[in-house]
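Hello Y.,

Per our agreement to keep a running log of every chain we model this quarter, I'm adding this entry. I've kept the format consistent with earlier entries: sequence first, then predicted structure.
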Amino acid sequence: MNGSVLSRPAPEPPRTVAVGDDPDQVMDLWPDGGPGRPLVVLVHGGFWRPPIDRTHLRSMAAALNALGLPVASLEYRRVPGDPDATVADVLAGLRAARAVAGPVVAVGHSAGGHLVLHA
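Predicted structure for the entry above:
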């Protein structure tokens, strides 16, 4: 069995919403959770390169949602040489997440952790 997070099957999100005009400026939502729970916002890693996207966090998002937490998974532009676009997208995604759910807890994987700390 391949345990790679990049190839693990996971369900599609119930909703995806745009947080900007670019196709990579979106947020997947698993909105149902227990009352009063903050929205867990996942920010994927992938060393800021185009081939790695938010889909590799879907299994984590689904697992957290199954535990009663509402979850959002952000996508952002990954343009080599343009870190400002990436940072702007993560900030816009976090603002959109707060507009959807109020309090949020941001969690980043790898480069996503760096982006969460920067935000």
